[in-house]
Amino acid sequence: MLRIYRYLPPPAERAPCALTIGNFDGVHRGHQAMLARVCQAARERGLTPSVMTFEPHPREYFAALHRRPELAPTRISGLRDKLAALARHGVSQVVVERFDARLAEMSANSFIEQLLVEGLRTRWLLVGEDFRFGHKRSGDIELLREAGMRHGFEVQTLADVADQHGHRISSSEVRTALAVGDLDRARHLLGHPFHISGHVIHGQKLGRTLGFPTMNLRVAQRCAARSGIYVVQVHGLAGRPLPGVASLGVRPTVEDRGRVLLEAHLLDETVNAYGKLVRVEFLHMLRDEEKFPDLPSLTAAIAEDARNARAYFAVHGL
């Protein structure tokens, strides 16, 4: 069972841990290699396999602080999907540290003593070779190793993980693939299809009046995936994935609020999905989002998208 803490665990629940630290956006194959090392070390030493992550992303915090929103990274996964992926890869404890002024201004030594030693009882620590921490990124691997000798924790580093072509696997690479709609590349880097999960919410019911009822999911405002129309499969509504076609974007034909929404239409299925937690897997991008002059033009485009999605499943299956 995954234990999630929004700050440090209370003293009575602090068990010696094997820890890794990072943002883990997307929990891609590079992250998965780190998690496997942490879980192995935890098993060998009788420790709790643990992750410390941050919300918001530190770059997001500094982008807002300096009023440079364009510097904030897009989000591959929301917190729910990140936590689910960490649990799937064997982690049993996650500390979600709020990245705010307190953390941004914390000295490197305080980070070690307050968070790693006292707060998490770290006995084994794995970080990337370029890991920096503390106020103005003043802490480095050497400082961690010196502190580990004083406080009794071991420090290990992991080099970047590369794919079979020698390209580094990173969250930035996943974001680039999603930004251009290259779902095959994203799948290769992630080790699974890109997906968005969430509870189905009530929408304007416009799709129903057009003959294409949709399930609506809220999406992070800075979603990494390109706005557009996708072939998808939906998990969580039946004993098998259901084929569908989905629109990710701001619905420019019918709305001008600029709020990003995921609308998925199931092909040849009618399911009461309101309130249910579903996972929408993105399989293939059909086209970019467009603004149509009127609803008949929009309806014709949706019908064509549904035909193209059916053609995809006829070739590839579910």
Structural class: alpha/beta
Unreliable spans are none
- N-C termini distance: 30 Å
Count, helices = 10
Radius of gyration: 22 Å
| Percent helix range | 25-40%
Largest sheet: 6 strands, parallel
Key terms:
318 residues, alpha/beta, six-stranded parallel sheet, six-stranded antiparallel sheet, 12 strands
Report on the structure:
- 35% of the residues are buried.
- The protein has helices at 29-45, 58-65, 79-88, 101-104, 108-119, 141-151, 171-179, 183-190, 206-209, 295-316, and strands at residues 3-5, 17-21, 48-55, 93-98, 122-128, 154-158, 195-199, 215-218, 228-235, 242-249, 261-266, 277-288.
- The strands form two sheets. A six-stranded parallel β-sheet has the order 1-4-3-2-5-6, with helices on both faces. A six-stranded antiparallel β-sheet has the order 7-12-9-10-11-8, covered by helices on one side.
- The mean pLDDT is 92.
- The protein contains ten helices and twelve strands.
- The two termini are 30 Å apart.
What would you say about this model in short?
By secondary structure, this protein is α/β, with parallel strands linked by helices.
Secondary structure layout:
Elements: E1 3-5, E2 17-21, H1 29-45, E3 48-55, H2 58-65, H3 79-88, E4 93-98, H4 101-104, H5 108-119, E5 122-128, H6 141-151, E6 154-158, H7 171-179, H8 183-190, E7 195-199, H9 206-209, E8 215-218, E9 228-235, E10 242-249, E11 261-266, E12 277-288, H10 295-316
Parallel strand pairs: 1-4, 2-3, 2-5, 3-4, 5-6
Antiparallel strand pairs: 7-12, 8-11, 9-10, 9-12, 10-11
Helix pairs in contact: 5-6, 7-8
